[in-house]
Each structure stands twice: as C-alpha cells, then as structure tokens.
Amino acid sequence: MSDTKEIDTQELGEKVVRVLKTIYDPEIPVDIYELGLIYDVFVNEDYETKILMTLTTPNCPVAETLPVEVEEKVKTIDMVKDCEVEITFDPPWSQDLMSEEAKLELGLL
Predict the structure, then answer these.
(1) How big, in percent rounded to 5, are the helix, strand and coil portions of the chain?
(2) Which residues have CB under 8 Å from 16's CB, separation 6+?
(3) Coil vs helix vs strand at 73
(4) Could you report the per-residue pLDDT of 6-34, keeping only the tens digit for each?
(5) Domains of the chain, CATH where assigned
C-alpha cells in the first residue's frame, strides 16, 4: 500500500509543477517555475501541498497577488486537499536560478 502512496505523491508533485508552469510573472514573459521562483514543492500523504517560493524582489508589484494565485491554482488540482505558499528571500532570487529556457527566452544567453 505504501508504494501506491509514494507514487501518488510524486505524481501529484508533478501535477503541481505543471500548474506552476502556467503562472507567469506579469513583468517577464516566462513562467514562475522556469524563472526559478519556486524553491521547493512538498506533498504529504494527505495530499496537502506546501510551496516554498520567492519573488524577483521584496517590493515586487505582485507580492500580494502572486502567492494567492499560486495557492488558488494548485488547489484546483483534484487530489490536492490544501495548499500553503511560503515566501522566502533566503537565498535571494537571482538570474542564476532561471532555467536555460528562460534565459534563452529573455535573451540572456
């Protein structure tokens, strides 16, 4: 039975990442996952998720709305019972956290 749970939580984690890739920073035409704003996604056996993320700057104009959007979109996944978003600035975001794809999109490569 525990094997099924493990697969389910991993599968759910992948679904969460797919949803995160549909959320964009309004100032940059790249999704928040590829931008490197998502530091970690935790899914427990009760299908509660916790997302540890950052913002490009502490005074980011979407500081109030982006975490709420992340939480609401993740909660739309059928299996997710609850979602908590925690914002951290440690380590601070930098362009080094961006995926190759995001850097290419923004002409940084």
Answers:
(1) 35, 20, 45
(2) 41, 43, 49, 51, 74, 77, 80
(3) helix
(4) 668 899 999 999 999 999 988 888 999 99
(5) 2-95 (3.30.300.130)
Tokens 């850097």 belong to: 103
71 SS3 class: helix
pTM to 2 decimal places: 0.89
Residue 86: closest CA among 45, 47, 39, 24: 39
Q: Which residues, in sequence order, are CB contacts of 75 under 8 Å at separation 6+?
A: 82, 83
Task: Give the DSSP H or E segment for 93.
Answer: none
Report yes or no: 62 and 26 within 8 Å, Cβ to Cβ. yes
